[in-house]
């Protein structure tokens, strides 16, 4: 990074950062999604204790800035004898963060499946687990898809905070380049464009899903 | 096919002095009635008189404060009652069909036999075909609920209950959400069930239907069984309340 003009090598470095942003987003989505699914199930559990415990988890994580979670994981674990790389710290923090928000989004979706659906399954002698997995969750998934894809945008943008623990994703890559080029406007404009290129398709997709929410699509092929 | 859980002697459903409140609102105030095997009982009464609540208590969708409910030998009023066993013997159909919208009609019907009773899929499909034929929907196996009319959805819901081979069927105003021209097709299905010897408790606003199909009528008023007897009580009510109810053309 000796050149003082923005060149191909800079762009390549930025694209590499963008790739790490995608990777980190994917880790956060998959890990946070799995944990969030568990959180959602706990939030609607039949056990009051489980509901309260998971509620506290959600409140604590949502009440802590992601930046602070990153610091806590990165600097808090080594004294306990657990060494964490920037990637691990960033991943773990994002997974915690995403699980709390996804958990709440999905809890809302599960609860928005009409009560009579639960009851109809109950009257057919289905157990609570069977009702959940065969009747309620399949309907909740359809309701959940648009807000989940919408939340993906938040995940992508929030990966930029991983720079505070020294992880070189897109935002950090931009910082590094700017430190040698001193062209902040140009560099951050490129970065903004790259984020936009990643987020825009997601929000478009989310809006498309929202428009065909429910069973509207299938209804079009109904022959009366 | 399935073994009756109770001896064929004695009532299939029995309520004895059942009391139930929602908060300070007394909804069932000492309700008692019995339904024998093969009998059809119609519960009538003004809206809010506790008919649905009585039905829901029979399937333990509501718990009661005092009294006793026995259904097919299950002590429903016992807090430790195994709910699964009760619900295997009781089928219930609601005003709002409550079919599962993400499943086809066939899948709606097969779900519980496969998951709850452990039936093989092919066997469950066979049952689905049979019960759908019974309600006149043999050609709707692959349709989704939203593709059916209200009357068809309600008949599919009845078929779904029948596929579990219940000992007793409960119907809660199953035609109230339907246009008048669709009411008949659902009532005909229930009438056929009655003719086939199914034990039934039905809450209904269809007086002509109750008169024709029911072996016995329970008229509920203010959470009490106000008057009960054979269908003839509708022609010659003893209480002023039933006279007024029948006269109001409901
Ligand atoms: N879950 C409930 N919580 C509170 N009140 C209820 C509930 N269900 C029914 N009620 C009340 O109990 C009374 C009887 O209701 P219901 O049994 O549905 O009457 P019906 O079916 O005869 O119209 C009504 O006043 C109704 O508002
Ligand atoms: Mg009612």
Features:
heterodimer, A: 224 residues, MetI-like fold, 9 helices, 0% strand, disordered C terminus, B: alpha/beta, Rossmann fold, disordered N terminus, binds adenosine-5'-diphosphate, binds magnesium ion
Write structural notes for this entry.
The complex is a heterodimer of chains A (224) and B (250). Chain A has 224 residues and is mostly helical. Chain A has one domain: Orthogonal Bundle (MetI-like fold), CATH 1.10.3720. Chain A contains nine helices and no strands. In chain A, helix 4 crosses helix 6 and helix 6 runs antiparallel to helix 8. Chain A is elongated and about 75 Å long. Residues 214-224 of chain A have low confidence and may be disordered. Chain B has 250 residues and is an alpha/beta fold. Chain B has a domain at 13-98 and 167-249: P-loop containing nucleotide triphosphate hydrolases (Rossmann fold, 3-Layer(aba) Sandwich), CATH 3.40.50.300. Chain B is built from eight helices and ten strands. In chain B, the strands form two sheets. Chain B has a six-stranded mixed beta sheet with strand order 6-7-8-3-9-10, with helices on both faces. Chain B has a four-stranded antiparallel beta sheet with strand order 2-1-4-5, with helices on one face. In chain B, helix 3 (105-115) runs parallel beside helix 5 (150-162), helix 4 crosses helix 5 (150-162) and helix 5 (150-162) runs parallel beside helix 6 (180-195). The longest helix of chain B is centred in the C-terminal third of the chain and has 16 residues, at 180-195. Chain B is globular and about 50 Å long. The termini of chain B are far apart. At the A-B interface, helix 5 and helix 6 of A face helix 2, strand 6 and helix 3 of B. The structure holds adenosine-5'-diphosphate and magnesium ion.
